Every structure is written in structure tokens, then in C-alpha cells.
Model the fold of this input.
Amino acid sequence: MKVMKFGGTSVGSAERMKNVANLVTESGQQRFLVLSAMSGTTNSLVEISNYLYKKNPEGANEVINRLEVKYMKTIEELYSSKEWKDNTKNFLKSEFDYLRSFTKELFTSFEEKSIVAQGEIMSTNMMTNYMKEQGKDVVLLSALDFMRTDKNAEPDPQYIKEKLVAIIENDPNQQIYITQGFICRNAYGEIDNLQRGGSDYTASLIGAAINAEEIQIWTDIDGMHNNDPRIVDKTTPVHRLCFEEAAELAYFGAKILHPTCVQPAKFSGIPVRLLNTMNPSAEGTTISNTSEKGKIKAVAAKDSITAIKIKSSRMLLATGFLRKVFEIFESYQTSIDMVCTSEVGVSMSIDDNSHVNEIVDELKKYGTVTIDNDMCIICVVGDLDWSNVGFETLATDAMKDIPVRMISYGGSNYNISFLIKAVDKKRALQSLSNLLFKNR
Ligand code: ADP
Ligand code: ASP
Ligand code: MG
Done:
């Protein structure tokens, strides 16, 4: 069985939903579909929650009304029969009544998760009904019945596997399953989610649980490009990546893939393919265990980075000094992306600023602390093993006109990272593209 995940733009209109239905049923093979909410919906649901937090029911109602108009229009365009239009309209009416119910009572943080879950619940119901109208053999599974996280908010693969295998074994000939990406239950049975963009993670977790032949991530672009197409001109698709390269790119800002999605697929050895709903015959990108020797594959950028430097001539290289520094970050649940050390100082970068003041206060016990805000990490990814002489020179050459705050090379065989000012990001990405990919 193949898992096929369709993102927000791929189910973003009646026409797109029809395309997806055709694409899925063309093959006549068993499929497990994972759908995101229609594009823009999760943002609107977050906006509704924010209004409710601020005790502004009028603001929330305005967004709910706008969303309802959009969905009712989609229903008109999607179904041909009155029966399926009425059936789906009734379902959506109950959804919008549910959202409105929060504007009339006291709102708690627990309910925010239920509100943002409704986007995927709506899109999967609409798609299931459309495929049923088309006479397809399809069944809708609620992700809330099998997707669960543990007390550390990490998915519980054993539970997910047991539930899904039982469902499939119960009806081994079922052609198409549809379920929601993103949403889950937490260890206490409450509705929760796998973080924004987390439908990719759902697909990968399901793929691993059912030992799928392949996990396909269908989106609005023909695979992973060699640079960020939103920023740089003339980017081109990379046809093959190994899991490590894909993980580096996803973590360092290539939005096409959620970083968490790589691990379950890699662990189970299941290839992941990135494909374009708008151009289904394009080759896309295949991510697998196979690496291509001696190639620089792509460049990505991660925004909103803060650099923290601690200088301490007395203590730096004393045994245990780095441990004390890292423990401070750990105690505030803040992960470090880059680290550089020298005889008198250590510099680190973080992407989560929520505890930066507390961290700095504690670091001051050990030395002089300085901070650089509004930075970004530029990450060059490929087979960068140090036996490939000259790759790091090529990358640094492209950065020759850009002030570089930190460089990291050798942490893995797959990445060279540069920490630069956010204002220089576009220039750096373009320059790397010009130099690294000019002949491709
Ligand atoms: P979906 O809604 O299908 O999950 P996303 O918006 O999350 O889609 O991801 C697809 C988008 O990722 C593309 O439209 C593209 O603008 C962006 N993107 C950023 N970096 C890359 C890259 N290196 N290659 C391809 N797409 C990228
Ligand atoms: N709908 C969710 C979001 O917009 C999850 C996803 O699309 O992956 O973040
Ligand atoms: Mg996405």
C-alpha cells in the first residue's frame, strides 16, 4: 500500500479536490490518503482562537462567517447531485455551529486544539463524500482513533501501529482509506496536533506503521529544489536525496518537507517521494537510503536565529565548562543549532527566543555574554564528507562578500552552515546558487 499525503493547496479548491480524486483512483491500487486542511483554513482557525482568547467574539464570528461562505461555495462546485450537496452541507453546518458555540461561552486553552483540528476534519469529510459520489470504494478513518502522542508529546509508534494494523486486517481488500493529517490525541485523550505543517509527519508515521511501499508527499511544486524558490530565481528540482540530506534541508528551512517527517521513514527504510499535484508526471524527488557521492545538492535558510556568545578567559576550557553552559539551555528546553568554540569563548545559535533573557542571566555567572539578533542560518547540503576536497572552499567563496558570524563544518557529512544577518539572506542564497549550481 502507498501512503499519499496532499497538502493545503492540493485540496485548496473544488477543482483541486477533483484532481486529487482522479490522481488517486487512476492506479486502481490500494492507497492510504492523508489530507491537510484546505489552504488558509488552519490560519483562519488560529485567528478565531486568538480572537476568543482576547474575548472578542465579534472578531471570531467575522472569520467564521467568511470561512463558511468559502466552504459553502466549494460544496456547490464540488458535487453534482443534490443528495451529496445536502449531505455535506449539513455536516459543515454542524462544524460551523460548533465553532460558533465558543463565541458564546468562556474559552479555555484546551479548546484551541479542538478548534484548529476542524480544518482537516472538514477537508477529509468533503473528499470522502466526493469520492463516494463518484462511486469509489473509500472509507474515512478518524486520525483521533489511532494517532496518539505520549507524555513527552512524542508520537507513540507502537499504539499507532497496533490500531492501524487491526483496522487494515479487518478489511484487507479496502481500496482507499482517507484520514486527517496533523491532528491526534495526546496521552490524556485530549485533541492535540503534531505542530503546524505536521501532516507530513502523519503520513510518515502511518507509512512506518503499515510498512508502506512508499510515502508520497504531494504539494504545489515538483519536488525539493536546489534553493528556496520563494527567494531565488531559476531553482531546479533535485531528483535524489538521502534521508540525512533531506533531514538537514527540512530542519534548516526547506518548507516543502516538515523536519519531523524524515525519521519514521528512515527508521523503517521506506522511500519518501515529493510530487507535484499540478504536474503529476514530473519526476519529483525521491528520498531514500541511497546517497550520491561527491555532490552538493541544495541550499536552505532558517530564519529568526539569535546568536549568543559567552567569553570567559578563566573557565572556558576547564573540564565541565561546556556541560554547565549546555545545561542552562536544556533547563529552558531550548535547543542549540550551531556551536563554535575557541580558547576564550563559545558561540551558540538558537531559534527559540522565548527564554533568552533567563538563559543570558544564568550564562552571565560564567563570563561576558553578548547577543546578535535577527540572524539566519544558511545551510549547504550534500555529500560533504571531508574526502571531497574543495567543497567547503567553494561554499565559502560564494559567501566572500557577506559578513559571516559563525561557520560550522564537520558536524555531519552532509552540511556546511553559515550564520549571517537576516538582511543578507537573499544575497547569500543567490550567490550560492550562482556558484554551486551554475552548470546544472
Ligand atoms: P503543503 O501545503 O503542500 O504542505 P508547503 O507550503 O508546506 O506545502 O510546502 C511547499 C512549498 O515549500 C513550496 O510552494 C515552496 O514555496 C516551499 N519551498 C521552500 N523551500 C523549498 C525547496 N527547497 N524546494 C521546494 N519547495 C520549497
Ligand atoms: N493544516 C496544518 C497547517 O496548516 C497542517 C498541515 O497542513 O500540514 O499547519
Ligand atoms: Mg507543508
The chain is about 40% helix and 20% strand. The chain has a mean pLDDT of 94. The CA atoms of residues 250 and 259 lie 5 Å apart.
